[in-house]
């Protein structure tokens, strides 16, 4: 390999890791819901997309500026998530996984339809909250939005992990995740925990959606692209918060490399190839607990 | 035989007390209605009827996997794709007749279904759902990228089919005949050991294993059979539309069939029929209703989003309020609720 191609490889790698950071937040949202209530939320991508649209609406359509946009996106996504949990999933507690999955697919379909009705099918550009100016490290050039997006994700993810590790609410979530019955017996309000995990997931989704949208724009189909997050969660092992962070970056890195060297079609396919491999080789994922039932 | 099977909730019997003679009469009338339908209905209705027949086949297949065996699949349309491509290629390169193509498509989809069912041996529930999602994207990728065989994004163009020298009407008869044959096969499957093993595995796989059912083989078979039905439907669809492209087999199409299963009624053949009819006609009715309401307004942009909203609402509404689907509603209308256990959830 010549110096030029090594340099290019490093550049692709940095871009890939930075774009993978978008997966991290959505994957964290998946993981905390799944851990606490065993609901696999197929509407996560649509929650991302909706958060990005709320940002667009408050920021540009209502002209309130990007800070109001962020506030609207976080508050609106939290309310939406709470509504899904209280309005639907609470009534379906204890029903088979088949039912829960189909309900979240239905929710995703509704959100997609509503977004398309309200904002139309075309790509909307979010206003640029991330500086555009590229960053140079020696001879390496990193697009500004990606770099600052990565910084933003790192801060949010670090804040979330700290909250999850050190706050009382985080402790309650972890207790509920490891043993619902005991947690209830110790006086933890596990229904409150379910609502809390959904609210947190909604806000993580909104953050991830806004960052993804400010790089590529927003369409009602953004949620479908976010199905790739499933691959991240599979690779991480469904229940691992730290694993979701590492797997998100890893998938983003591989995706960009594959896309750069083999073409865009391979880039879209790669996450699912990873899913298939993980399923066959190690269904618990890289960092998952060994609690998959096998028959 | 029939009464024994109702306790297992398997076949389509509505639980109504109708004497066998009346039942036979009803079936005969329905059969005659189907035979003479094209003579009275216009081209559009024959077209819709053929489409419904194809969708019924695919929905029954998915119901075998999801409803009866309890294995969630969100990659069903990919198996339709396998059937469509294989039958299309057989027709283009071998020139085989339609029935052989349909059988070939079904067999190929069966084989591919078995391959992607292998993850089902090791994993359950949502993990399996993700495996089927991976199947969906993998097969789509192959349809799109294997250009030398599948024609890539442009797909395969098939010659015009002329069954019995009757054109569209001839195809309608073939589709109806295949649909009826497959419906009878699916119904009878649940009078056999294999079909009942599906239900046993769905309800309690540990207990099924203790009873001597080979759970692994049963799950694989449930997966493969569902895919085979999809393959047959895909092959018929290819002959019907005369074009096969990757975009006919996306995730949204899989969700369409899942919606048909849920809306119609899980673990019910009649439910699959009702669900497929309802979901196929719904967009048409929506379009019709919208054009009637808002004349001249720009409606084209509304239809697709409204469809998605209605799909989602129907899935959620039925799961929350009538988990047995349209079949449950029909039974309730006839005043026979909960007389036998047909809750697919145990």
Which helices and strands, and how do they pair?
The complex is a heterodimer of chains A (295) and B (346).
Chain A: H1 3-37, H2 44-61, H3 66-87, H4 97-119, E1 135-137, E2 140-142, H5 144-166, H6 168-178, H7 180-185, H8 190-216, H9 222-225, H10 228-236, H11 241-262, H12 264-281
Helix pairs in contact in A: 1-5, 1-6, 1-8, 1-10, 1-11, 2-3, 2-4, 2-8, 3-8, 5-6, 5-8, 6-8, 10-11, 10-12, 11-12
Chain B: H1 2-7, H2 20-40, H3 43-68, H4 76-94, H5 98-122, H6 125-145, H7 147-150, E1 156-157, H8 168-189, H9 193-203, H10 205-210, H11 215-241, E2 243-244, H12 251-264, H13 269-293, H14 300-321, H15 325-333
Antiparallel strand pairs in B: 1-2
Helix pairs in contact in B: 3-8, 3-11, 3-12, 3-13, 4-5, 4-6, 4-11, 5-6, 5-11, 9-11, 12-13, 12-14, 13-14
What form of chain B results from the Cα inertia axes?
Answer: globular
The assigned structural class of chain A equals: mainly alpha
SS content category of chain B: mainly alpha
Strand element count of chain B: 2
The major sheet of chain B is characterized as: 2 strands, antiparallel
Question: From N to C, what is the helix and strand string of chain B?
Answer: HHHHHHHEHHHHEHHHH
Strand content of chain B: under 5%
Number of helices of chain B: 15
Radius of gyration of chain B using CA atoms only: 20 Å
Helix content of chain A: over 70%
Number of domains of chain A: 1
Report on this model:
- With 295 residues, chain A is mostly helical.
- Chain A has a single domain (1-281), classed as ABC transporter involved in vitamin B12 uptake, BtuC.
- Helix content of chain A is 74%, strand content 2%.
- A two-stranded antiparallel sheet of chain A has the order 1-2.
- In chain A, α1 (3-37) packs antiparallel against α8 (190-216).
- Chain A starts with a helix and ends in a 14-residue tail after the last helix.
- The model of chain A has no long low-confidence stretch (mean pLDDT 85).
- Chain B is mainly α.
- Chain B has a domain at 37-250.
- Chain B has helices at 2-7, 20-40, 43-68, 76-94, 98-122, 125-145, 147-150, 168-189, 193-203, 205-210, 215-241, 251-264, 269-293, 300-321, 325-333; strands at residues 156-157, 243-244.
- In chain B, 49% of the residues are buried.
- The model of chain B is unreliable at 1-13 and 339-346 (pLDDT under 50).
- At the A-B interface, α4 and α12 of A face α5, α6, α10, α12 and α14 of B.
């Amino acid at each position: 390999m010549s110096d030029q191609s090594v340099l290019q490889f490093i550049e692709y790698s940095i871009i890939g890791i930075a774009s993978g950071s978008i997966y991290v937040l959505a994957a964290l949202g998946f993981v905390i819901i799944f851990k606490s209530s065993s609901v696999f939320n197929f509407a996560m991508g649509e929650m991302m997309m909706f958060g990005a649209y709320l940002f667009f609406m408050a920021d540009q359509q209502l002209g309130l500026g990007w800070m109001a946009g962020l506030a609207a996106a976080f508050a609106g996504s939290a309310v939406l998530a709470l509504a899904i949990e209280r309005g639907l999933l609470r009534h379906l507690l204890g029903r088979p996984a088949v039912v829960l999955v189909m309900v979240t697919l239905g929710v995703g379909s509704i959100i997609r339809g509503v977004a398309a009705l309200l904002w139309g099918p075309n790509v909307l550009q979010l206003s640029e909250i991330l500086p555009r100016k590229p960053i140079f490290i020696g001879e390496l050039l990193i697009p500004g939005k990606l770099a600052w997006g990565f910084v933003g994700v790192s801060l949010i993810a670090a804040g979330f992990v700290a909250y999850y590790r050190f706050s009382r609410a985080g402790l309650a979530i972890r207790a509920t995740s490891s043993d619902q019955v005991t947690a209830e017996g110790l006086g933890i309000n596990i229904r409150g925990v379910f609502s809390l995990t959904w609210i947190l997931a909604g806000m993580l989704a909104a953050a991830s959606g806004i960052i993804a949208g400010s790089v590529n724009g927003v369409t009602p189909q953004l949620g479908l692209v976010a199905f790739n997050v499933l691959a991240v969660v599979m690779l991480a092992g469904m229940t691992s918060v730290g694993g979701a962070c590492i797997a998100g970056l890893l998938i983003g890195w591989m995706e960009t490399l594959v896309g750069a060297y083999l073409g865009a079609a391979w880039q879209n396919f790669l996450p699912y190839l990873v899913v298939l491999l993980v399923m066959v080789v190690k269904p618990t994922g890289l960092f998952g607990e060994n609690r998959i039932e096998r028959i | 035989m029939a009464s024994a099977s109702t306790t297992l909730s398997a076949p389509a019997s509505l639980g109504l007390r109708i004497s066998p003679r009346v039942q036979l009469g009803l079936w005969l009338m329905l059969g005659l209605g189907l035979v003479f339908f094209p003579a009275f209905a216009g081209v559009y209705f024959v077209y819709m009827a053929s489409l419904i027949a194809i969708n019924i086949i695919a929905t029954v297949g998915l119901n075998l996997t999801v409803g009866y065996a309890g294995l969630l699949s969100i990659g069903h349309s990919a198996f339709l794709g396998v059937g469509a491509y294989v039958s299309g290629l057989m027709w283009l390169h071998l020139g085989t007749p339609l029935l052989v193509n349909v059988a070939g498509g079904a067999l190929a989809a069966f084989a591919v279904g078995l391959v992607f069912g292998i993850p089902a041996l090791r994993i359950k529930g949502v993990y399996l759902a993700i495996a089927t999602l991976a199947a969906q994207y993998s097969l789509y990728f192959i349809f799109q990228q294997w250009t030398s065989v599948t024609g890539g994004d442009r797909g395969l163009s098939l010659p015009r089919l002329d069954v019995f020298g009757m054109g569209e009407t001839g195809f309608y008869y073939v589709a109806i005949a295949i649909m009826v044959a497959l419906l009878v096969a699916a119904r009878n499957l649940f009078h056999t050991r294999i079909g009942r093993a599906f239900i046993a595995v769905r309800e309690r796989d540990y207990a099924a294993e203790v009873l001597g059912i080979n759970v692994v083989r049963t799950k694989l078979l449930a997966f493969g059979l569902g895919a085979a039905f999809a393959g047959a439907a895909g092959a018929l669809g290819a002959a019907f539309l005369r074009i096969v492209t990757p975009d006919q087999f996306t995730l949204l199409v899989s969700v369409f069939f899942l919606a048909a299963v849920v809306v119609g009624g899980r673990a019910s053949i009649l439910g699959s029929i009702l669900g497929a009819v309802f979901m196929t006609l719904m967009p048409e009715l929506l379009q019709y209703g919208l054009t009637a309401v808002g004349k001249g307004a720009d409606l084209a942009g509304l239809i697709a989003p409204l469809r998605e909203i209605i799909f989602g609402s129907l899935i959620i509404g039925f799961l929350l309020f009538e988990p047995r689907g349209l079949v449950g509603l029909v039974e309730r209308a006839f005043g026979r609720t909960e007389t036998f256990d047909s809750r697919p959830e145990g």
